[in-house]
Amino acid sequence: MNKRNKLFLGIWIAALPFLLSGCWDNVELNKTSLITGAAFEPGSNGKIRLTIETMIADQLEGNKDTVPSVLQSAEGNTLSEILIRFNESMDRTLLISHVGVIIIDERLAKQGLLHLLDPMQRTRFIREDILILISKDVPASHLLKVLYPRGTLTSSKITSQVKSYRISYGGIPESRLFDISEALLSEGRELALGAISLKGSFKDANTLQSIKSVTPKASIVIAGTGVFSEDRLLGFLSLEDSRMLSLARNQVKGTTISIPNHDNTAIRLYHLHASLHAEMEKGELVMRMNLEGDGTVGSVDESIRLTSIGGYEQLERLGAEYLEKQMSATIKGVQRRFGVDIFGFGEQMYRKQNAQFMSISGNWNERFARTPVKVKAKIKLYRSELKTNHIRNEGIGP
Fold this sequence. Notes:
This protein has helices at residues 3-20, 79-85, 106-109, 114-122, 140-143, 154-168, 177-185, 239-248, 309-337, 345-352, 354-360, 364-369, and strands at residues 32-42, 48-55, 69-76, 93-95, 101-105, 131-135, 192-200, 218-229, 232-237, 254-258, 266-281, 284-299, 373-383. With 398 residues, the protein is of the alpha/beta class. It is found in: Membrane. Belongs to the GerABKC lipoprotein family.
């Protein structure tokens, strides 16, 4: 055997261990359970109660006579301990890398989130884009027990619902694990997380009979936004205030506003942008917010004619005034009820006027709570969809 063949044989033998080896931590798929959702609640004797939703793959293929998932609960002092203790009643290895949503009970959130977040941020199996929500007025585990006619996993339905609501209405602020870490580490901005609740009767919501009715016994609804001071929950914002908060954070892709005192008048807004400014002027804190956006006419009443530029200008003025009024009311409500900056005025000041911010950073929230914010909005309308005037102003007919 010549040297060339010997060299080739040696390389081949050396490569065999890499070609024939498998993953060091591989597990058989039919011996595992995928965790798709989780709910944290206060347990007994100061412990944490964790409820998990595990997928039943066979039932997702179209069998409507059985549920698509199984729920299990366990208690412990830490998340790591609880996950191990699930095998006291389960025969399969749990895989947490496919968790789509984590729901934290408001009772637990009021005590603080750090003891829950640390193990989630530390492990390599939980993704940073996982959705984390707060349950309002209902135990967190109840939300995972609500069944749906399509046989969809509850956690998957919640994730899709929050995403769709945010796209269509503006919804609730981004509530991913990454967003929590970012808020807790940011200077001048407090944490805010989306909230969900239960509508209807829970008593019959987790039975197969409930999904055989045209009207479900219960359903999960978006319930606003949870406001935090550091990692502790203070309270909740309404859906309208949540939309204004998302707008201030530049997280609204599109929304519709209805103009008060003008029946059936609405504007569909796109490309919304908010600019926040905070600085010291003559020893006093000054905060401003500028809102800009463009959109289309959703509907108009008889008093507004769109055959001239004046009609569009009137709608633009009414829409801008509405945004200014609503945003100002939201900011004042947060200042009065919670006294914390969840909008990010302090964060902007930290970035652009660092020396000024550092001189007042020790009591920033107190400064924010007592300082009025000047809001200015500007809207540009480009078209009126398929119609121009209201049908009564078309001039058609006898």
